[in-house]
Design goal:
Elements lengths: L2 H17 L11 E4 L5 E5 L4 E5 L11 E2 H23 L6 E10 L1 H4 L10 E11 L4 H14 L1 H7 L22
Parallel strand pairs: 3-4
Antiparallel strand pairs: 1-2, 2-3, 5-6
């Protein structure tokens, strides 16, 4: 795909979103099923079923996907696609490359061993290694625009309000005690 093809593909979408900004707001969903026996959650990705479980550092076997790895994989996927789209739009000469995300976790926080240790990533590093002969100023522009338009990067950099709700059916009334 070249820059003209990309613009032609996106032009009607951009026009529709300008005309009616509400059309641009879409709710994405992910759904999983809790395992009845083990400590796992089966997530339907829309392409395949992924079974997530405990990381070996928290007692898992390593046979299931780790949700922390999945978060980094989502960042890599989004950043990679965004960089390719931006490179295409800029007619940036990109022969190939790699993208890698690394994140530091302190499992003492996750396991409740230390209240001083955070639960969650302490740091995440996203690194691209590009095969290009483009000058540094064009690489800088590509970097800036990739960071600006990558949904997962921006969500992690400036987290939106996040809520958690748990619903369960009301408990059945207990039988009355007879004395």
């Amino acid at each position: 795909m070249n820059a003209d093809d990309l613009r032609a593909l996106q032009a009607p979408l951009k026009d529709a979103y300008r005309a009616d900004p509400a059309k641009a707001v879409i709710t994405l969903r992910a759904k999983g099923a809790l395992d009845g026996e083990g400590i796992a959650c089966k997530v339907d990705t829309g392409r395949a079923m992924v079974e997530a479980g405990l990381h070996p550092a928290t007692g898992g076997s390593g046979a299931e996907a780790c949700s922390g790895d999945m978060l980094l994989e989502a960042l890599v996927a989004c950043a990679g696609v965004t960089l390719k789209a931006v490179a295409t739009a800029l007619a940036f000469d990109l022969k190939g490359g790699t993208v890698m995300a690394e994140g530091d976790l302190d499992f003492a926080g996750t396991l409740g061993v230390s209240k001083q240790s955070p639960v969650g990533f302490k740091a995440i590093r996203l690194t691209f290694s590009l095969d290009t002969a483009e000058p540094p100023d064009r690489v800088a522009t590509l970097t800036k625009l990739t960071e600006r338009y990558c949904v997962v990067f921006q969500t992690l950099a400036a987290p939106p309000p996040l809520t958690l709700d748990i619903t369960a059916p009301p408990s059945a009334p207990l039988p009355s005690a007879r004395a």
